[in-house]
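Same chain as my last thread, 362 residues:
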Amino acid sequence: GFFPENHSKYHIGIDLHAEEGKTLFRQLAGRSDIMVENFRAGTLDTWGIGYRRMKEANPRLIYVADSGFGQWGPFSQGRASYDAVAQTVSGMIGITGFPGRPPILCGIFIGDWFGGLMAATAALVALHHRDRTGEGQLIDFAQSEGLIRTLDWTWVRQGLGGRDREPEGNRDRALVPADIFPCRDGYVAVAAARDAEFKGLCAAMGDEALARDPRYATLGARQRPEHMSTLLDRIRGWAGKLARAEVEAAAARHGFAATRVATAKDKHDDDHLRARGSVWEYEDPLYGKMVEQGPAAKLSETPARIKWAAKPVGWHNHDVLTRLLGLSPGRIRALEGNKVIGQWADRPGAKPPAHWDGSARV
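reply #2:
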């Protein structure tokens, strides 16, 4: 996951335990608009580079502290977090999985991704405030609290009905029918929540009378647990005889939603995504041919782009410290000699590829 999140960035390595390293860090903060850290609460304060010290170096700085449980409160103190922990504490995992079986973690690092996106949004708000007032500020964001915002009607059900939301597997309790069904050559997601869409699904199944059955004729009727189960079983029997493409074609003809469960290879080779730049293939001077996820948002006047692949830690030490802080080559060599700044570890993944000859860095 390092490459998709770190392309087009400058990578430097500073030992923040060393006093000279802390000084360099404060100097960089003094030249920065936004600083982001994701250590456990209070760590950078103990190192002397927390928000209060950074504010002294740059009162306009927007300091984003992205942690598992926030910078204050009894549960945050001294407690580390990973994505799986944030998913669990948020309550998100409690509604996943299939009835009668253990919860299932989300297949991606949703807490990390969602936390980064919400923190970035908060940073934009803080930038707007700074443009108006000249003042920076601290943004305290907790991964676990951010994921609570994804739980849609879970809290409404508890607040109004006093009941927890039960695991539903892949089906949707609110929009019926909506589930993932096995086909002859894989899986397909089918959804037909509106009554007109459901009539189209019934026509595709060759059972138009099903749409007139009082158990299924309206969304409210289809939502009843006993009706939902029998309906989904009938759709499962129909889809299981078809290929994914046949179900997709039937959906296009009859006006309901259906699409195959795609694999990574499906998306990697997708002509549509490549034409839009959502799958981005390019030649990097260090790594050669690279294929990555491209920018999702397409801006008409300032389109995003990938300038270079993510580089090993410390790759841009000289460039950043010379250009931003005005350090001389001799000073940089002294910092290297004192191990205040450094570069990648000698292990696969952290260091440049074996074919790199030490030539100019980009």
